[in-house]
Amino acid sequence: MTVSKTKAKLVDVARQLFAKMGVENTTMNDIALASKKGRRTLYTYFKSKDEIYLAVVESELDILSDMMKRVAEKNISPDEKLLELIYTRLDAVKEVVYRNGTLRANFFRDIWRVEKVRKKFDAKEIQFFKTVLLEGQAKGVFHIDDVEMTADLIHYCVKGIEVPYIRGHIGAHLDEDTRNRYVSNIVFGALHRTEI
């Protein structure tokens, strides 16, 4: 097994154990046994359980980044693409947090630790927003004074509602059409979208 495959297997096994037993209740020995690798192999790749936890978070963010990239590359109008990027981002993060069971508590408790790992993802996300905004501006869909600043603002707005969205505090009582109308009004009003 190659180095990257071994490391990926260790991360995947750790993710499953963290989700099932909780990060605190999972030991490095548990990960070594479940992955059928020795403790020496595990410690070759990760110095601590904290390091492997952050690798689990990073692997989930890589998957989300790939999902957003596929949306950004779709052959749809920039305004549809922008909304789909926002929804893909929020729904995927919500799904990751819930799928990982007991990781959910760690995600909220360790948000600042998770933030360190998210820097690379955040930069990619801002670039996706920027690309779609530039496309929209080139096609005359959006009228934006500063694309860079607008991409940053969209990123931080979406990031800011992430936790309330995951916890069901935002729009949970709305049907999909009403929710979409609210989001569209806010996003497109700020971007001065033209009707096409």
Automatic annotation (TrEMBL):
DNA bind region: 27-46
Keyword Ion transport tagged: no
Residue intervals of the HTH tetR-type domain: 4-64
Any Pfam family hit: TetR_N
Keyword DNA-binding: yes
Signal peptide: none
One function term, GO molecular function aspect: DNA binding
Keyword annotations from UniProtKB, A to Z: DNA-binding
Protein name per its UniProtKB record: HTH-type transcriptional regulator QacR
Native organism taxonomy: Bacteria, Pseudomonadati, Bacteroidota, Bacteroidia, Bacteroidales
Name of the gene: qacR
